[in-house]
Design a protein that fits this description.
With 243 residues, the chain is mainly α. It has twelve helices and no strands. Helix 5 packs across helix 10. The longest helix has 41 residues.
């Protein structure tokens, strides 16, 4: 019976955090559908960009990905279609910048309230500490998955208060496999609307996506299981020392 009041208190004290997390899931789907038609109606909009225009494009997509206006897959496909491989390094850096911007925005919205709430409970506090120690693996495994929303994961990982430089590098490294794949798909396409609405990944592409999902789920399960066992073991040792 105590769990219900506790959950109510959790949601009440962290309402802005939970609402923001919900929006980070819903908004990218709605916006990307609209942008697909905009790009279709203005197919020359992003063609033959100068270097400074391309730089502005990378800044813009860094912001739109950070605030969940455009999914990362959408950006990779569209960038591959319009920019070709010359734009690939910029997209990789944009992902890292978007991750840092999303991280910072999440910290501003949450103000550490979620972690303060969890720190009231010893087991939860110990688990968060262990997960923070596993932050590189945790970030990499969430980024490698093609189904975990990028902006939402920025928010969730920011709640752990992981190291920013590690967050930046691990985000880029984790996203490289699917970024390369979807960027390549974009370079091969002939129609932007069909590409963005129904990217044809082929049999090998589907196998790659399934493999990345399995690696992500299996790896995250291992990381959480190991962190939980360490947290419980440390709590047991601490309690025995007190007696």
């Amino acid at each position: 019976m105590k769990k219900l009041p506790l959950l109510r208190k959790l949601f009440r004290e962290n309402a802005s955090t939970f609402i923001s997390m919900l929006l980070l899931v819903v908004v990218p789907v709605a916006v990307s559908s609209t942008l697909a038609y905009v790009l279709y109606d203005h197919q020359t909009l992003l063609q033959q960009l100068t270097w400074w225009q391309m730089g502005l494009y990378f800044v813009a997509v860094s912001i739109t990905m950070a605030v969940a206006l455009t999914p990362t897959t959408f950006v990779a496909l569209a960038s591959g279609f319009y920019l070709g491989w010359s734009g690939f390094p910029g997209i990789v850096v944009s992902y890292g910048v978007a991750a840092l911007v999303g991280y910072s925005l999440a910290r501003l919205i949450d103000h550490g309230k979620m972690m303060s709430f969890l720190n009231r409970f010893e087991n939860a506090r110990n688990l968060m500490q262990e997960l923070r120690a596993e932050s590189w693996s945790l970030i990499f495994l969430t980024r490698i998955s093609p189904v975990l929303p990028f902006a939402l994961m920025n928010f969730v990982l920011s709640l752990l208060q992981v190291n920013k430089s590690k967050f930046f590098v691990a985000s880029i490294v984790g996203m490289l496999p699917r970024t390369v794949f979807f960027f390549w798909i974009g370079t091969q396409a002939s129609d932007i609307l069909n590409l963005l609405q129904n990217p044809e990944t082929g049999g090998s592409g589907k196998l790659l996506m399934i493999a990345l999902i399995i690696i992500s789920i299996g790896g995250l399960y291992f990381v959480f299981d190991r962190a939980l066992k360490k947290a419980l073991r440390n709590a047991t040792v601490k309690n025995s020392e007190n007696f």
